[in-house]
Amino acid sequence: MKENIIICRCSDLTQQDIRDLINQGYTTYDEIKRISRVGMGPCQGRTCLPLVLREISIATGKPISEISPGTFRPPVKSIKLGAITEGALEGGEACHE
Amino acid sequence: MMPVEILIIGGGPAGLCAAIQAAEMGSKVLVVDRNNSLGGQLVKQTHMFFGSEKQYASTRGFDIAELLLDKIDKMDNVEVMKSTTVLGIFEDGVVTLENNGKYIKIKPKATIVSTGASEKNLAFPNNDLPGVYGAGAVQTLMNEYGVKPGNNVLMIGAGNIGLIVSYQLMQAGVKVEAIVEAAPTIGGYLVHASKVRRMGVPIYTGYSIKEAHGKDSLEKAIIWQLDEKWNGIPGTEKELDVDVICISVGLSPLSELLWQAGCQMKYIHEFGGFVPARDENLQTSVKGIFVAGDVAGVEEASSAMVEGYIAGMSAASYLGYKLYNMQEVKDDLMQQLNSLRHGPVGEKIRNGITSLMIDNEAAASIDAFK
């Protein structure tokens, strides 16, 4: 039976999934994020990031302090596109200049 | 766009004290918090605090929150936005917020980031079974919402949170089967550890969880002893009938907004993860962005409050506000921090801070607010 050790609850990725990706050569957090969507769910990495960095550290022998946690971009939580456009209009910013 | 003088992100112990200090010096403050009430983690702390009377020692956490909120209520120059999440900090100093599905943009002249920290998770088989919680989540369920999480608990981690939540679980009539701690020694204060031990809870040091079991929800936990390389030793397994596992293996600073803002970050293990470099005024490498509390390095709520006062003072004085005895007040706050960081645990914190220090000139290297 496959061991059910969950690393990423948002995208349902197990420790084995992450280890397989590292073995395939995805050895940075950003690469693993792009290929697997780890850290891109509602938690935005708050749950999984430390666990993934630990896996990278174990596999590569690099201390966590030398592993980049990737790029952090706004927004930190989901928001509807409609709200952004509305906000832009109300904020006095013209959409077409 | 809403003009704001000082934006404070997060209304926990650090943010509230920052707001009080900055407002007392005459600046206009906006406190934003994603919850529908302020106080942060203080609101669920039913135990009395340590430290000195300046940090409300011997007062219960939720009473401290009340005291701070009373002060804020009386201040005309503090505005509060609840149920509001800061979504991003941009290069031009614009900060975006979400409130009730509305997207709001503001441009503060100075920002204090006091977002706190989140609970760390642990990887073990079946760690997604219902019944596996963060210890802080269980504390929220019990003390804030009055919900009993289950009947028999395994606590993972013997730091202060693990020990205090174990005690509070027992106060709520829940049986704590055991506390396991992977390290060879108990991390939390001895008084807390002695208290739970006296109530008959075994604390296994050098032990960790091997796996959880259960059909639809947690029914059983298996713990085992660790060797000096932190690997489990076969044959040392103990089986515990529990319906709740509390994970209390540390906190990690909620620093994503600081990364976005371009603050220089450094990994400090003792502080729980990546934390911002700062000067003694708690200004980050981005001019006009200050930090206080757990986001600047996970410590106790007492030091978060003192850091809050310092950051509040620094942000106000950055905008030109003054106090007639500013140096005196600042010296006193620094002195309070030093005494809170006294002793062997404090030594790690002091070392961590030394490696994070940037001098004042370096702090002015990037200016986000021009």
Itemize the secondary structure elements and their pairings:
The complex is a heterodimer of chains A (97) and B (370).
Chain A: E1 6-8, E2 13-14, H1 15-23, H2 29-36, H3 49-60, H4 81-90
Antiparallel strand pairs in A: 1-2
Chain B: E1 2-9, H1 13-24, E2 29-32, H2 61-73, E3 78-81, E4 84-89, E5 95-99, E6 102-113, E7 117-119, E8 132-134, H3 135-144, E9 152-156, H4 160-171, E10 175-181, H5 190-198, E11 203-205, E12 207-213, E13 220-225, E14 238-240, E15 244-247, E16 251-253, H6 256-261, E17 265-268, E18 273-276, E19 286-287, E20 289-291, H7 301-318, H8 326-340, H9 343-356, H10 360-363, E21 366-367
Parallel strand pairs in B: 1-2, 1-6, 2-3, 6-20, 8-15, 9-10, 9-15, 10-11, 19-21
Antiparallel strand pairs in B: 4-5, 5-6, 7-16, 12-13, 13-14, 17-18
Helix pairs in contact in B: 1-2, 1-7, 3-4, 4-5, 7-8
GO molecular function (chain B): oxidoreductase activity
Protein name (chain B): Sarcosine oxidase subunit alpha
Domain FAD/NAD(P)-binding (chain B): 5-308
Short descriptors:
heterodimer; A: 97 residues; mainly alpha; 2 strands; 40% helix; 5% strand; B: 370 residues; alpha/beta; FAD/NAD(P)-binding domain; 2 domains; 7-stranded mixed beta sheet; 31% helix; disordered C terminus; FAD/NAD-bd_sf (chain B); oxidoreductase (chain B)
Highest CATH level, the class of the domain at 6-71 in chain A: Mainly Alpha
Major sheet description of chain A: 2 strands, antiparallel
Shape of chain B: globular
Determine the structural class of chain B based on helices, strands and strand pairing: alpha/beta
CATH A-level architecture of the domain at 6-71 in chain A: Orthogonal Bundle
Q: What's the arrangement of strands in the largest beta sheet of chain A?
A: 1-2
Number of domains of chain B: 2
Q: What is the fold-level CATH name, i.e. the topology of the domain at 6-71 in chain A?
A: Arc Repressor Mutant, subunit A
